[in-house]
Amino acid sequence: MNQAVSSKPFQRLLLTGAGGGLGVMLRERIKPWAQTVRVSDLKEIAPAGPGEEVVQCDLADREAVMALTEGVDAVLHFGGVSVEDSFENIMNANILGLHHLYEAVHKRGIRRVIYASSSHVVGYYPTTQVVDATVPLRPDGIYGVSKCFGEALSRYYYDRFGIETVCLRIGSSFDAPRNARMMTTFLAYDDLVELVRCALFTPRVGHTITYGVSDNPVKWWDNREADYLGFVPRRSSREFAERFPQTGVWPPAEDIAATYQGGPFLLAGPMYKD
């Protein structure tokens, strides 16, 4: 084995959701950390490149998930439904599928999971309140509820079996903010990669909850509870301020998308679809 390969910290990392927006970006950026990166998604994705393995997998299939985790050192779990959807679709991917994953992680003896949670677990807090990792959960939809389940399930597997998890309450991770709300929730790709790196390489994390957000001028989330990860965002939505100039027009008081942190996700829930 040559030195370039043997010097990589991990033998094999598993990235689920590798066909999604964040998964596609992370797929290339995590390669320096492992000799082999196993990438997986429900749908067909790009063929394996150097140092990669591609496995198509349905998280709702227990045996397939068990096979998916063989020989893995750590899991970066970005798979599942990432928007508001029917309960059945969210349940199969985000609830049943996550249980299958943690059971496999436990049986395989894998020691750490980086779990892509969401800021939508606290989406019903008002935009006038700054919240941290200790506040009661207030999800803004069924998708948010499924991420609350994921945080609770990962807590159970840590308390019962010692499997460490870092739950990333990701805001809005894109190459640039796409609307005025994202000026607050923006998480630059560079900062997401750095957050994942900190979550993966910190020697002891126990069960950690951290908000995934860049150094934006307006802040809804307080990350002091996770300072030991050493995550310092380098990017900011300030870079894009000219795209969303302040107008001086105030939204009406009944506009819940402007009142609560969840924004338009609150309008996507079942009570608004009927």
Describe this structure in words.
By secondary structure, the chain is an alpha/beta fold. It has one domain (3-273): NAD(P)-binding Rossmann-like Domain (Rossmann fold, 3-Layer(aba) Sandwich), CATH 3.40.50.720. It is 32% helix and 16% strand. It has 9 helices and 7 strands; from the N terminus they run αβαββαβαβαβααβαα. Strands 3-2-1-4-5-6-7 form a 7-stranded parallel β-sheet, sandwiched between helices. α4 links the parallel β4 and β5. α3 packs across α4 and α4 (87-108) runs parallel beside α5 (142-161). The longest helix has 22 residues, at 87-108.
Quick description:
This protein is α/β, with parallel strands linked by helices and 274 residues long. It has one domain (3-273): Rossmann fold.
The name of the CATH superfamily reads: NAD(P)-binding Rossmann-like Domain
Low-confidence spans: 1-5
What is the name of the CATH class?
Alpha Beta
The CATH topology is Rossmann fold
Count of alpha/pi helices:
9
What is the helix/strand order? HEHEEHEHEHEHHEHH
The CA-CA distance between the termini, in Å, is 60 Å
Number of strands: 7
Strand content: 15-25%
Compute the average pLDDT.
95
